[in-house]
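Run log, item B.
One chain of 161 residues. Sequence copied directly from the ordering sheet:
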Amino acid sequence: MVVRTKDIRVYSHNVAKNYMYFDVLLKTLYNDFDVLFIQEPPWRTIRQAPSSSNKEGDDVIGAPMHPGWLYMVRPPQNNQAPRVMAFVSKRLEKLCPSMQTDLINHHDIFVLSLFQGNESYNLMNVYSFLFFKKKKSWPQRGQFIYRCVLAVRSLSTKQAK
C-alpha cells in the first residue's frame, strides 16, 4: 500500500481520562483515521508483569492499547500522568513516525514527525488548558508553537460555527 501524506487523516480528542471510552475509540476509529492525538489519556495500572522481587508482579502502567496502532507517549516524570499522546496507525509505519522531543520537550506538547523521501512533516498535539485558561507562558520555542496553535485554534473555531 502506498501512503500519500495528503491522505493522512488526523483525529484529536480530549478523552477526559475515561478508560472505557478511549478503549472503544481505539477500536472504532481504526479504519477511519491514521493518527489519533489524545489529550488527558487514561493512565493507570493495566496489568501485572512477572517480577523476581515481587510475587504479585510489578505494575504495568499506561493507556489502553490496540494491535493496529503504534503507541507513542513521552515517558512520565515525577509520577505525573501524561496529558498528551499519539496513536499512529500501523499502516503508516513506512513513514517512520517518531516523537520529536528534540524540537520541544514538554509534557503538554507532543510533536509527531512523518518522513517521506527527503521531506518531513510535523504534526503537533497540544493540551491547551494550561495555556489558554491560565495564561501560562509558552515553553521553549514558544513563538513557533504559539503561531501554530493559534492557527489550529482559529480553524477549529471557524469549523465549529
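Observations after the first pass:
- Strands lie at 10-14, 35-39, 44-49, 58-62, 69-72, 84-89, 98-99, 109-116, 119-126.
- The chain has a mean pLDDT of 79.
Flagged for discussion on Thursday.
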